[in-house]
Amino acid sequence: MSGQRLKLQFQRLYNHFGGDSIETNLQDIAEVLFCTRRNVRMVINKMVSEGWIDWQPAVGRGKQSRLIFNNTDSELQLNHARKLVAEGKLEPALVTLDHNAEKLVQLIQEQLGISHHQGKQIVRLPYYRSFENITPLKPLRRSEQHLVRQIFSGLTQLNEEKGEEGTVVGDIAHTWEAITPRHWRFYLRPAIRFHDGHLLDSHDIFATFAKVKQLSLFAHIDEVTSPFSNIIDFYLSQDDYHFPDLLANTNAMIQPANHASLPDYETFPIGTGPYKVVVNDKQRFKLEAFEQYFGFRALTDVVEVWILNSFAACYLQPTSSDTLEHNIHISSRLSMDQGCTFLLLNRISGLAQQADWLNYFQSRLYSLNVMREMDLTQVGDFKLFNAYGLLPGWIHTQQLPEPVVIPNKRLVTLAYQQEHPIYPYVADLIEKLLAKDGMRLKIIELSYEDIILGKQVEKIDIWLNGMSLGSTRSDAILSWLHNFDHIQRVMPTNEFKQLQQVISEWRSTPKRAFPSDIIGQTLSQTGQTIPLFHNWLGVDDSVQLQGMESNLLGWFDFKSVWSKPQNT
Hints:
The protein has 568 residues and is of the alpha+beta class. Helix 2 (26-33) packs across helix 3 (37-50). It is flat.
């Protein structure tokens, strides 16, 4: 008998007797359940084994047996829904609960946080959207960047531990040297395996950088060779004293040489990092610790991200069940995001190619003016504060003097990425501001990948975008500036070439400070970008969870989290 059939039989029995313990017999129960006496015995035995009832058979002819209900019908329903939630089956759980979303929220809250099952430490976290692409050479949003770092490894990496985000350390390569400023040699760790078990070799690195060097950020890579086992040489077209730092970029993480032929690779990628992907659908994203990882084995065995896009109220802290039960104080440790929400103007084929439109956008859509339209209660919910430059602490924007000339055209086209909690709200604010001048705003929603790759670029005047560098390093803005040519595509050629020249001079000079301030100032004061807001990032945690320091992508290093038992 199926489990669902047995539950229906219990429900029928429970409703017939009103949930009360009662004197009865097999024949009466057979009539209630519409089955034979023989089947009744089997049904009762199964319900007893499940713990739903107790059955005390009578001794002697004509005696009545005793039926005792250990569960109510609603308890059974709740337990079944709880089991479905534990398996990540949220929609069936909602159906089981008669579409009672509040009950589902309670069950989800029970499951989130840190727990232990069969000796494994499991961390469950809520998130508002699924992850359809988590591969290094695709345009990545902030959360995908974090996940890629957990799944893949690069030749070098940024150290996220102990607040040392600025330090570049070895990863697949344990050391390196500059034979000349245009010839770098990297020494690889031996016997590194991908998640599918095969050993990493030089062909995987050759294939990776054959694709990577097509990006403008890595265009000065001429040739990649392997003169000896576990040694990789890079030959460059220009001097670069900072090349090992560049290889810590997410785009440069190593993928299998044959990854293009692997089925579902974008959804279930194969890397050499501390975690491998085992579930990735619309409801759950699940990582398991990779036992053959070449670095320190992850402290957390399983990380599950539950996609709760239909239940936005379920943004819950990743606490342990003990913390919830004992109501221990929950702290929030937040840090300023190294980036901002900004407007990118199309100065090549959009309205901003004309000086009057450029002046108009700068004078109307600056940060404080947009924030004046905001509901102040929502500013707190979004954890926003106004921006004067692309990064916190930068003051590069300049408000143009009033009065401003209002251009004649009355339609402005704005695009933003789909599935973002803030952009629709900000777009509405911009629409209200433009409406005051008699203008209409046409809004286009695109995928993040389509925006970065320039889909419909000729039709769009303004992009509402976000940047998050994930590092406090001064050169972190470099990869964003070259991100799939998104900015170069809509910026006057002479201005972008000037920035590239400044970057080339930095690369070719040892121990020279990266010119980040020049880049930020140029982009803001030319009106290429209009910074709007910075925001606070962080992870709400409890005193029981160790190693959950928030990184600058708003997440935490999964492999460093562990549970510290409370003192008894």
